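Hi there,

I know you've been waiting on this one. I reran it after we fixed the sequence typo, so this is the corrected version. Both the input and the resulting structure follow.
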Amino acid sequence: MIIVGHSFGGMVVYSALAQSLIEAASSIAPHVGTRFADLVLLVNPAFEAVRYLPIFDLLKERTDSNRVVEQPPIFVCATATNDWATGIAFPIGNAYCLLTESWRGVDERQAMINTIGHLNWLTTHDLKVIDANPGYELTPRNVGPQHPYWVVSAAPTVINGHNGIFQEPFLKFVAEIVFTHVSRRLRDGSASV
């Protein structure tokens, strides 16, 4: 099962599944999975990155204790670098919280007013177009095994602005992730055909 949310729909999806995503990240099992979905895909989601920090901390702990194994992503948050709605308007609209709420450290302060995809320290991958028909190139920012929670920074040639999500390179990227999940299910014998 794949659950997709865009913009405020991404906020609704994340709010509904955050507890399941946190539980999955805190699991001691080598492979991570949620109770509700094989893949949660958020595109240009419009919610504060501070909501993602519990997962970020758990993933850092998993990485530090070498509990990361290669597996398809279960969470992908893709944000266009030129998305003015979540990159400019959202932080301006959220700035009032700095007057009414407290924070610990610069990172948490940034996470209170910005969305996930616009904070470099949360970003795990870069997605851009390559010349092949229009193909794409996904580049992890860190070397080594990747945890299955991806925060992807997408070039405008992949996702153009807030609503330009149906471009061929991005659709190919999503199709490949879905195909990876389906192939794994079929290989493991856990899918009914």
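Quick highlight: The CA atoms of residues 141 and 154 lie 13 Å apart.

Best,
R. S.
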